[in-house]
Design goal:
The protein has 339 residues and is mainly alpha-helical. It contains 13 helices and five strands. Helix 4 crosses helix 7 and helix 9 runs antiparallel to helix 12. It is globular, with a radius of gyration of 21 Å.
């Protein structure tokens, strides 16, 4: 999208939790799309570590994964010279604004959130208040930066809606404080499904490692997972997105299309009349070859801790500077004394 040179670029904010190995779904559904947005938008991307602790984490592992995620962002093509990259917890304004917004968010709104219901069922021994108010922190993440657009998949639009509702409620009381963000729905590869249960989204928290492809998996493991992916007994390579019986093939067609810059329909036509085994082999090859240069760059970057520190330090400084303008405005509006 070309923008008028006399107008400032629209701002984008997004992030991924360092709560596990980043999957192919995270890459295709989020990070890969961010790369293409950098030239046309002012982009701010975070490692969302505050969000991860709604589920118990091993501290040393969380620190390790946060740095790995930063290295992976850069290896995938997120340019620190073009985009702001920082660790969420390094900017205290996220938590500070979240508290204020908690006081402008209704219990009923939070009770309707599907993610709370889902995580509560999977972590019944740790249904904490943070899990319940998670969408408020997410709203804080977005609103702090006067964000124009948030790249999301369809399943995340509910979070954008509650963010907009809270922002509009606050603005209705205090004037034009927050920019009302919009969700930017990504197209190709927006929703990669589980390899073992293809009616469910691919998730890094899936207890079955065969269900997802980690960007850090051994290449032979990646190929094996794809070749053993659930399909169907029909034996026909067709893209039928409304047919749950074809969910496995639909998923592999979607992955292949995203990897090759094609469409699922075109891929299906290319492999028309061929067997599932041949098709799975081709998908495995395409995924491995697409990930290979990312992994090579990642292996180089992750060894340079001083470089990574310089990126997240300068990124946090820039994020803090932008966020403080919004936070001070909010504090003044609600009646706090500003130093």
């Amino acid at each position: 999208m070309e923008q008028n040179l006399t107008e400032p670029k629209k701002r984008i904010f997004s992030g991924v939790q360092p709560s596990g190995n980043i999957t192919l779904g995270n890459y295709l559904g989020a990070i890969k799309n961010w790369v293409s947005l950098q030239d046309d938008y002012e982009c701010i991307f975070a490692m969302m570590d505050l969000h991860t602790i709604t589920v118990r984490q091993t501290p040393a592992e969380l620190r390790k994964r946060t740095l790995e995620l930063l290295a992976l962002y850069i290896a995938c093509g997120i340019d620190p010279q073009k985009s702001t990259l920082f660790i969420q917890s390094h900017n205290s304004a996220h938590a500070e604004l979240a508290w204020v917004l908690n006081c402008y968010t209704y219990m009923g709104e939070l009770q309707r959130m599907t993610q709370f219901k889902d995580k509560s069922s999977r972590h019944a021994d740790n249904i904490n208040a943070g899990l319940f108010t998670y969408p408020v922190l997410m709203a804080s993440d977005i609103l702090l930066y006067q964000t124009d657009l948030v790249p999301v998949g369809k399943d995340q639009m509910q979070h954008i809606e509650i963010c907009r509702d809270v922002a509009q409620r606050f603005n209705g009381l205090y004037g034009d404080v927050f920019k009302i963000p919009e969700g930017l729905l990504v197209k190709s590869g927006a929703k990669v499904m589980s390899l073992t249960e293809p009616t469910k989204k691919m998730s890094k928290s899936d207890p079955n490692p065969k269900a997802f492809i980690s960007m850090m998996d051994d290449f032979n493991v990646i190929a094996k997972k794809i070749k053993s992916a659930v399909t169907d007994s029909e034996g026909v390579i067709e893209f039928r997105p409304e047919d749950d019986a074809k969910a496995g093939i639909n998923n592999l067609l979607t992955i292949m299309a995203a990897m090759t810059g094609s469409t699922p329909e075109t891929v299906a036509k290319d492999f028309e009349g061929q067997g599932y085994g041949t098709f799975k082999g081709a998908v495995a090859d395409a995924v491995v070859e697409a990930i290979r240069p990312i992994r090579e760059e990642y292996d180089r970057i992750i060894k340079d801790k001083a470089y990574l520190q310089s990126i997240y330090t300068s990124g946090a400084e820039n994020a803090y500077r932008i966020a403080q303008r919004t936070l001070k405005k909010v504090y003044k509006k609600v009646g706090f004394i500003i130093e």
